[in-house]
């Protein structure tokens, strides 16, 4: 976000730039950037946060040793969290539920929506495997009672059971439930719930900051010609005179 304040700090600010774009040379831009002081400790925390959230336990451990940055959570729990997430992604919902309960039994006890979505995913997997009778029995015994207590659950259940009405489920109106994206959605919900149980945010901070950078640049594009970062992987400043 420092680039946004650099332009705001120019004489006349955004009001002056409203009528014509101001040219900010690379030399001017880099001088302003050098005046922005960012602590190395804060940068290290961002990196550690990303590694922890994305489940890179070995990289996080190495980074902890090399940088001296302590994570907010026990790194040993990352493996368990990722195992539960992967189980859902592979369609092994029963295994995922067991892993979540082993991790912290209160997670599902206090989150009826997550438990319903896991049971719904289990129903989807039964239908995917062609186990029609077992799927109907499971829906009636495990999901229907929850649907009677919650209208949104009932609507999701009805939509899921509708898969049984079509011979070619890949082309039916609710066929998206069998897509990998549905597993990923449920897996992400499991991941977020486990992180919440550890008093941790569900999304890493680094991608959010990059989104803020993109937004800030889009705002400044209308007001000034300045050294942009067009390639986030290299973070190379492009000279405005070359654009």
TrEMBL record:
It comes from the Eukaryota. Residues 77-134 form the CTLH domain. It holds the Pfam family CTLH. This is CTLH domain-containing protein.
């Amino acid at each position: 976000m420092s680039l946004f304040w650099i332009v705001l700090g120019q004489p006349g600010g955004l009001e002056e730039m409203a009528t014509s774009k101001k040219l900010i040379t690379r030399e001017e831009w880099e001088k302003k950037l050098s005046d922005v002081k960012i602590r190395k400790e804060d940068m290290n925390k961002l990196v550690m946060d990303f590694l922890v959230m994305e489940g890179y336990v070995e990289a996080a451990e190495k980074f902890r040793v090399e940088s001296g940055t302590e994570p907010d959570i026990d790194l040993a729990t990352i493996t368990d969290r990722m195992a539960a997430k992967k189980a859902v992604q592979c369609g092994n919902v029963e295994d995922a539920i067991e892993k979540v309960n082993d991790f912290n039994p209160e997670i599902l006890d206090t989150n009826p929506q997550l438990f319903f979505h896991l049971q719904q995913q289990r129903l989807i997997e039964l239908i995917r495997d062609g186990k029609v009778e077992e799927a109907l029995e499971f829906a009636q015994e495990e999901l229907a009672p929850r649907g009677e207590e919650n209208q949104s659950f009932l609507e999701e259940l009805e939509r899921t059971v509708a898969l049984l009405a079509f011979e070619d489920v890949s082309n039916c109106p609710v066929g998206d439930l069998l897509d990998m994206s549905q597993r990923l959605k449920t897996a992400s919900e499991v991941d977020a719930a486990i992180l919440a149980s550890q008093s941790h945010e569900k999304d890493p901070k680094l991608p959010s900051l990059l989104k803020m950078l993109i937004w800030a640049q889009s705002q400044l594009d209308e007001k000034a010609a300045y050294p942009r970062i067009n390639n986030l992987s290299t973070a190379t400043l492009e000279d405005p005179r070359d654009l």
